[in-house]
Specification:
There is one protein chain. The chain is mainly α. Helices cover 59% and strands 0% of the residues. It is elongated, with a radius of gyration of 24 Å. It starts with 5 loop residues before the first helix and ends with a helix. The relative contact order is 0.10.
Length: 275
């Protein structure tokens, strides 16, 4: 039901264009950053809205007669009512289909829309935490630590410069050029995850998002400026563990932190070339 179709492919492409990320960026992460749900939900709601209109038609109307004819064609491939039944079943409203009656159409439609959105959100969260393929790995392993609520992220409004906004998005959803991600596409054979070392420093650490923000000694000066700025606005920040500091910054929860992270990434790009 939430699978790929031509309309959804266009929706996905548009989301990536808005975020300014490449075509290989995670579809799930792009939808999650924007708080978007598949267009299939909107389409499903309009289908059900028209179905409710038909079943509530007067019995002496042409619309009612048309509906009775279509009910008789239900088990043919041409009948759109198969979609109605599938949508109601997915949302847990199968009894409504058998009753062929909706008492309060407005409340029903609103509840159905909420139920479909909740169903998609549940699927999305399951995919975000899916580690069933240890060899392939979950590229969103860092992102899922900070993506708690399925909603549009505040930094997309806070950061007005398109490039700075893009830099944060790329880092958050692992659509960047760091070796933890770049090694995934190395040819003729991808670099093992535990060998995707940072080439900017001599620590033999894996170049991932945590290393970029918290560890790489190539960026010590801009990092100290970032830490000082965050400390001035966050109580007890200086006493936090490195992991807690990283998650606090990477969560992008307030405009002050987001602005300072954007400044830090600008300086990193000046040194590194790109992220």
């Amino acid at each position: 039901f939430f699978g790929k179709n031509q309309i959804e492919l266009l929706h996905t492409k548009f989301n990536k264009m808005l975020l300014g990320v490449h075509s290989k960026a995670s579809n799930l992460a792009c939808y999650s950053e924007l708080g978007e749900v598949p267009l299939a939900i909107d389409i499903a709601i309009e289908i059900i809205r028209f179905w409710v209109h038909m079943i509530n038609a007067e019995q002496d109307s042409i619309l009612y007669d048309c509906y009775q004819y279509q009910i008789n064609e239900l088990h043919t491939d041409k009948c759109w009512l198969m979609s109605v039944r599938d949508i109601l079943t997915i949302a847990g409203y199968e009894e409504i289909w058998y009753q062929q009656r909706v008492e309060n159409p407005h409340a029903f439609i609103k509840g159905l829309q909420q139920k479909l959105q909740e169903t998609y959100t549940k699927i999305a969260k399951n995919q975000l935490h899916d580690d069933s393929n240890p060899q392939k790995g979950n590229k969103l392993r860092t992102y899922r630590k900070v993506k708690i609520h399925f909603k549009r992220e505040e930094y997309l409004h806070d950061i007005t410069d398109p490039q700075e906004r893009k830099n944060i998005t790329k880092l958050r959803i692992s659509a960047h050029d760091l070796h933890i991600e770049k090694g995934r596409y190395h040819r003729p054979q991808k670099t093992p995850a535990n060998e995707r070392y940072c080439k900017q420093c001599n620590t033999m650490d894996i170049e991932d998002e945590f290393h970029l923000i918290m560890k790489c000694n190539k960026y010590d000066i801009p990092r100290q400026e970032l830490m000082d700025a965050i400390s001035r606005n966050t109580s007890n920040f200086i006493n936090m563990s490195d992991e807690s500091k990283f998650l606090h910054i990477f969560s992008c929860k307030n405009k002050y932190n987001n602005t300072n992270l954007a400044k830090y990434l600008n300086k990193v790009i000046t040194i590194r070339g790109q992220i």
